[in-house]
Description:
The chain is α/β, with parallel strands linked by helices. Helices cover about 35% and strands about 25% of the residues.
Amino acid sequence: MISNKNGLGYSRNMKNATKEKIKSYYDNLYSSLEIEMRPIKVYRKVMEYLNGRKGLKLLDVSCGTGNLIKCAGEKGIEGYGIDISETALMLARRNIECRKRTVLADATYLPFKDGYFDLVTNFASLQYYTDQEKAISEMVRVARKGGGFCIVVPNGNFPLFYIRPQSGYRICGGKIEGKLLKFHEWIELFRKNGLMVKRIYRESGPSLSSSKSLLQFLRRILLKLSSLLPKKFNYELYFVCEKN
Length: 244
């Protein structure tokens, strides 16, 4: 899994983060390979949630290195991806078969015609978009009526986020800070932009064995423990939606 994927949307009211700064940030991050990758089984799980099958078209918005597109291809799904990072797309094109289906683009201006896709995914990226509504409205626009969505986001109700809330779009301490919404706020954002939430799944937590430091190990234990909390307070949620 990629903990910080890119492909951000941008607006004029950004704080100290500009489009070029954020693009540069992710290009450098992908170049250094200092990105936490999730196991491939996580992306296969998304395909199961969407009931993905041969012949469908899928768009992964903020596709990063293309692992989700790769898993879609395993099911005979025609996968496409957009990202704002040229470096990420370079890695994605090494990872998947059809390189022409990955496009350098902003999440708020998707270069596809209306109703083109059967499935749309957005994996742990929406919180970093400065115009979340515009990005979602673009995802909805390029999906057919009844199209399936899987949007993975952190949950602002997670107890630790109350200690250190993020409401930003800023580069702080060398990391991007996004805008977190709470459980019911994510649902309302999807609803008002034409999506019906059908099912919600929780993240089971990251692997402890691949921890690179004691601090990372302790953080992952906390994330694991969050999966024991009621879903409303889980760290990360998978919203499976349908276009109205």
